[in-house]
Amino acid sequence: MKTIKIGILGLGTVGTGVARMLEEEKDLISSRLGAELEIAKIADLDIETDRGLTVSRDRLTTDAFSVIDDPDIDIIVELIGGETFAKECFERAIAKGKHIVTANKALIASHGNELFQLAAEQGVDIAFEASVAGCIPIIKTMRETLAGNTIHSLAGIMNGTCNYILTKITCEGASFEDALAQAQENGFAEADPTLDIEGYDTAHKLAILNSLAYGMKINLDDIYVEGITKVTREDIQFAEEFGYRIKLLAIGKRTNGAIEARVHPTMIPMDNLFASVNHSVNAVDVCGSATGDMFLVGKGAGMMPTASAIVSDLVDISRNLISGSGQRVPYLSFRSDRMNDLSILPMDEVITRYYVRFMAKDKPGVLSRISGIFGEYNISIRSVHQKDGGDECCVPLVMLTSMAREKDMRQALADIESLELSKGEAVLIRIEK
Amino acid sequence: MKTIKIGILGLGTVGTGVARMLEEEKDLISSRLGAELEIAKIADLDIETDRGLTVSRDRLTTDAFSVIDDPDIDIIVELIGGETFAKECFERAIAKGKHIVTANKALIASHGNELFQLAAEQGVDIAFEASVAGCIPIIKTMRETLAGNTIHSLAGIMNGTCNYILTKITCEGASFEDALAQAQENGFAEADPTLDIEGYDTAHKLAILNSLAYGMKINLDDIYVEGITKVTREDIQFAEEFGYRIKLLAIGKRTNGAIEARVHPTMIPMDNLFASVNHSVNAVDVCGSATGDMFLVGKGAGMMPTASAIVSDLVDISRNLISGSGQRVPYLSFRSDRMNDLSILPMDEVITRYYVRFMAKDKPGVLSRISGIFGEYNISIRSVHQKDGGDECCVPLVMLTSMAREKDMRQALADIESLELSKGEAVLIRIEK
Could A148 and B31 be called an inter-chain contact, meaning their C-beta atoms sit closer than 8 Å? Predict the structure, then answer.
């Protein structure tokens, strides 16, 4: 039986999971693949810590390049993370004709266009299922299953940390700070959680999925990103009263010949499946021209779920190696010569429904003037609710609007603020069906 | 650009959908595949009806064999259905070295072992994503994504007709008969709905998934099958009161070295995602050793969703044709020489929780005697509820049990019946987490 040799760069949580899976499921994998996947070398800065693996110590090295340069190795698993050294390793591996499997969403989102170009020139496969939504096979679904579908829209809960925090606040009434602290304690959040809670991690994933779905170049820069740090317990409670749940959603939607690309806290009706996706679980909805909505749910992070995605990519590339079918599926779903120049719709042009909460001045006529300003900008108000709380001068006022244009909404809010009809900044949460 | 020639057998709803998709998404498909998929010939008994396709009439024939025998044709799409003529066509196509794409779950479930053996000998690909759960990529997920996972269990709502009927009864209080009639009016149920409502269609799909998940031969005969015809509005209402929803579930679960394989109405807790899968939508949950639960939801039937699965298989096989990588993935996930001899656990040995509804004699001591009999068979009762209704002699009595063995439950019910503690047959619905 043929042996495919694997080199792993980075023996952190996921790297250890991959090594463990290749050891524990050795028989299973060979009975499916018809070849053995052997860990030939592993590079990590720390090769002293015992990770409970059976791989012999002489296969461990602190020198990543020695793994990449090893002529016996067929596939490199890049689990270094970050964009600098990982990119160097990528480029070197491509130059050496090594196929690559990665979980590095930041690298693919920021440098994918360039790296896939290099890989194509060298005839090298790059697989990145683990970079988006953990074990959920959304990359394979986009690249293969939906091959005959024009994609209308996609949406996803793709950051476990944010979903964990929002679930804790929603279901247990925790404060944002406590929920974040718990997420960190339970290993669902990094010591520096900025990338997660500010929405950038989700944006990386959206940039990748948009490219796969719409045949556009990966475009991270034009994505609108708003994290969950301003979501309050109050807004979550109000949302529940109206029959909605707040989730950090990534949305990629075809609108008037452009693609909406936005990441922000979103109110979702309680009967939408997204509303039932809780804790650190991820979910992606894709709407194809033939399939209609397809909804995939699973663990979006963690040692073994991510390892599972890596191993499925290893098996895929190994099948290409065995049958000589390298680059069988285009990296980004579409052949590079058939990609289009779709651009991202400016956020100002996005049309959606809104939840707005003001601290409105508690004086006669204020509601009428606020409504008037909304009217001037063609924003219809579907309901108005004065809430308990507030202080001597102001009361919390919640409005739900009909479909309105982001630019109009922004200007209306600026007017309301400049006329001093409200105190502080209004809270704006977009509502999706 | 290379052209792959397709022959379609059967121009019913799905066949028309496939032809339409290949026409309408021609550019999209070629920009993903790097080849054109051309409909070379279509066979159907009715070649007169106008189906709104642009395919020229001289490509239509009533002679299926002339399509199979056409030396120019690379891939046959079998959409004849049934097990007799379709099987003949399969065998002839394999003999002629044609690759085959099918939606025929009955054929694969009943004759797959034999057909895959023939196909292997001829080096022919057979793809059947459309045979289970419509556009949901569960076959690909089993065969490829989960390559490194030992599967612990799978479960699915895989019959749109049944789910539509149960949803109508649950959400609108319809009777079974009215719900079925509506399903037929809306095209969700066949004129003869037996295969659907008696659970056999779901069993076909379970037989296929069990083989893919566990590496066992396809085994349809040993699956326990119970349809939805005995589910009453009352039981659905009682279930809702206890916080459960009733769904026709297919369950394939690893238990003590064997595989549970059963299709029956199942009570599912309201917070389980399955409980929110309504109307004709399908859903499959797979629990892998590394992934944990993965949950896929989508349209399980209908013209375009099924066509989408067929086209994704056409693209897959075309990629094999282009890169010369035929039989790249084993038909049934596992290489034929590495399949195991796992068998199906006899239904008597299955352990689960139960909902039991009796018409119990309205006499003192009856409850105590019934409880006593359950006790004799080691069945713990978690709660007892006397319901309104009944007649001069009997009252509806609902019991929810702890985990119990099917055989014990059956014997307890037989004892209760023979002692005339209740009237008529007890209603038994299994409860899953």
Answer: no
